[in-house]
Inverse folding.
């Protein structure tokens, strides 16, 4: 029995050796592929443009463009041609045609700089001519056509032109009579309640550097610094809450009762939310929900 088992194990091991030998020999002795065969096209990998196999389109491409663009075709062609002439728009020739596209591999600072240089180039070559002085629907359509060409090249360039040119106009209060409604009455309608408490809280924010006060045009503004990291924003948020707590913003937040106290808390939360939504959320989680929890616990104890 022992001899049979030994013989069977040795025969199986030899079969494995022969099998592996055959695999290696087939691998080593196979014919090298012909180079031309490697470059042959296969149906699943080849592509032929539709214009080579399909009949020509039944519609006129120029008429199709009139339908898509709508107006000022010559102005659009001139604007695109202006971009093709400058290296600021990264012209690249492919397949007998020239393409332009922005380089998104650049950092934000480089993209801002090249965007302003592109605007300067367009201004120097008359692309913004009669942008402010022209009047009538023809001028407006021409401005829209050139702005659309800039947006097709780069959306940020179109936005920059829209902000600096379309929105740059004489304020109506310089030429129109004063508003017929009272701003204070308008604020009562928008804010609704606790106007004095709101003014006090906004004034409290203006007095601290924690809220980034900035003076412009004779007025002081506060703004959140979104350039900070998440850890820095969390830290400054807690310091702002500590500052508001030290100056009595949350006085009677838990102990006060009645609708007047609730209105005051809502007014303070609204003011904080106007400055920074995340700060308002933090207050809502730590203060508003905690006060409601205390009320429920007091009810259960009673």
């Amino acid at each position: 029995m022992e001899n049979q088992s030994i013989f069977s194990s040795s025969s199986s091991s030899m079969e494995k050796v022969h099998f592996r030998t055959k695999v290696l020999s087939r691998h080593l002795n196979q014919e090298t592929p012909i180079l031309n065969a490697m470059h042959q096209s296969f149906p699943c990998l080849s592509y032929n443009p539709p214009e080579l196999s399909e009949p020509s389109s039944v519609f006129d491409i120029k008429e199709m463009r009139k339908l898509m663009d709508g107006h000022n075709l010559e102005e659009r062609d001139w604007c695109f041609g202006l971009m093709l002439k400058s290296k600021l728009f990264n012209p690249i020739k492919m397949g007998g045609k020239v393409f332009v596209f922005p380089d998104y591999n650049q950092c934000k600072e480089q993209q801002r700089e090249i965007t302003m240089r592109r605007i300067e180039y367009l201004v120097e070559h008359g692309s913004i001519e009669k942008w402010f002085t022209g009047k009538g629907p023809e001028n407006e359509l021409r401005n829209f056509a050139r702005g659309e060409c800039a947006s097709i090249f780069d959306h940020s360039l179109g936005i920059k032109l829209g902000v600096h040119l379309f929105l740059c106009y004489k304020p109506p209060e310089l030429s129109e009579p004063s508003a017929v409604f009272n701003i204070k009455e308008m604020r009562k309608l928008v804010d609704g309640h606790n106007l004095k408490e709101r003014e006090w809280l906004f004034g409290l924010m203006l007095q601290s550097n924690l809220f980034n006060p900035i003076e412009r045009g004779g007025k002081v503004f506060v703004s959140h610094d979104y350039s900070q990291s998440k850890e820095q924003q969390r830290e400054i948020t807690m310091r702002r809450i500590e500052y508001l707590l030290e100056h009595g913003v949350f006085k009677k937040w838990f102990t006060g009762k009645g609708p007047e106290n609730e209105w005051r808390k809502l007014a303070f939360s609204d003011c904080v939310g106007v400055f920074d939504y995340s700060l308002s959320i933090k207050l809502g989680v730590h203060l508003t929900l905690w006060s409601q929890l205390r009320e429920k616990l007091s009810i259960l104890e009673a």
Summary: Residues 184-301 form one domain. DSSP finds 14 helices and four strands in the chain. The radius of gyration is 36 Å.
